[in-house]
Each structure stands twice: as structure tokens, then as C-alpha cells.
Amino acid sequence: MVVSLVILLTSCKDREITAYRAPKDAPVAAMPSQAPATDTNTLPPGHPPIGGATAPGAVSGGDMATMANTPVPTAGGSDLTWTAPAAWAPKGGSTMRKGSYAVKRDGAEADFAITAFPGDTGGLHANINRWRGQVGLPAASPAELDAAVQHFDGQGHHFEVVDLVGPSGTRMLGAITSFNGNSWFFKLMGPDALVAAEKPAYLEFLKTVKAP
Predict the structure, then answer these.
(1) Reduced 3-state DSSP string for the chain
(2) Which of 9, 102, 145, 175 has minimal CB crowding within 10 Å?
(3) pLDDT in tens, 63-92
């Protein structure tokens, strides 16, 4: 009789433990983490940070399918005008670009993109650090960024210009200006030697940018 009682109590205890553990296992399988819709990592290639978010240097490829499919508001209202160098070949337009050119020299090719977005798109420092990431450079401090900016004046427009060279030999000339509440970006990116050779033409191009 005692042996039977011990067996019965042991069996009940096992059932209690089983019933107790099951609810603890369930939440483990129901904890998906999902980035917010405004996460910088979900933005399309070349898009500036939104809402003041800074873009870490690691977010540089911009080739994820989710990034390419994310709708992003572009600048509305009147556009700026410009005159591109004769050697720069216009490329097909896109929903993200205001202008697009292929810059070729000595068998190499660089891409020149003009884009515009509402507001300040996160600010100067965030945008330069985003560009640094695109050429493989780490994010820099505000003081380092300020020291690297060249102030350039065109036809009624002031540009903040940076010249960035990444460890893999990719170089970028980037300029930012404001017009009618929008931020305009002028980015020439390609092989180091080619972009360096085109820098005088790039700066002359910025001088032609003006309001219509």
C-alpha cells in the first residue's frame, strides 16, 4: 500500500512539472524582432537618413531588396537647373534621381547622381557619415567632419562639399545645398584616379547650378 502511494505521488509530481514547463517554452517561439519601418537599414540606395537618424558606416551597400522596394518621398516644387560638362553622358532617369550621368575616362567609369529630398534629411554630419560608409570609411566625429567640409559658392547657392577616398580605391565627391525647403545632393562616385581627375569639372558644374 505504501509503495503504491509513493508511485502515485511520483506520477502526479511528474505531470505537474510537465504542465508547468509547457507555458515557459511557448514564448520562446513567439519572440520575432522586427525593425521599425523608419529604420535607416530599410531605405533605398543613396537615400539620406530620415527624421534625424544617423546612418552608421556599416550601412553602405544599399543593395538589399527591401531597401530598393521602400517608397521614399522625393522633393516637390520647382527644381534647380544646371549645365553638365559635354563629356558627361546623360543616363536614363529614375524616380529617385533628378539627374544622372555616366562620367568616363581612360576606360574607367564613375556615376554622377543628383537627388533631392524634403527637409534637412538628418543634417550635414549624418549625411557625410552616410557617404563615408558608402566608400568604406568609418563614421567620424562632428569636429572631424567639419574640418573635412569645403564651403563652395555657386550662382546664389552655397554648397557643403566633401572629397572622400575609401580603402578599396573608391572616391566620392559629394555636395549638399538647400533650395525651397529641400536638400539637394550632388554625388560623383567611382575609381579614385577618375574622380580625382574630374574634380575641376565637378566644381565647375556646381557653379552652373541655379534656380529656374
Answers:
(1) CHHHHHHHHHHHHHHHHHHHHHHHHHHHHHCCCCCCCCCHHHCCCCCCCCCCCCCCCCCCCCCCHHHHCCCCCCCCCCCCECCCCCCCEECCCCCCCCEEEEEEECCEEEEEEEEEEECCCCCHHHHHHHHHHHCCCCCCCHHHHHHHCEEEECCCCEEEEEEEECCCCEEEEEEEEEECCEEEEEEEEEEHHHHHHHHHHHHHHHHHCECC
(2) 9
(3) 333 333 333 454 555 689 999 999 999 998
pLDDT in tens, 153-166: 988 889 999 999 99
CA distance 194 to 188: 10
* Structural domain includes residue 4: no
| Domain range enclosing 99 | 40-208
**Separation between Cα atoms, residue 14 and residue 11, nearest integer Å:** 5
Q: Does residue 150 belong to any structural domain of this protein?
A: yes
- Classify residue 16: in a domain, yes or no: no
Instruction: Say how many domains are in the chain.
Output: 1
Whether 24 maps to a domain, the answer reads no
User: For residues 91 and 101, is the Cβ–Cβ distance under 8 A?
Assistant: yes
Whether residue 188 contacts residue 135, with contact meaning beta carbons closer than 8 Å, is answered with: no
CATH number (domain holding residue 148): 3.40.1000
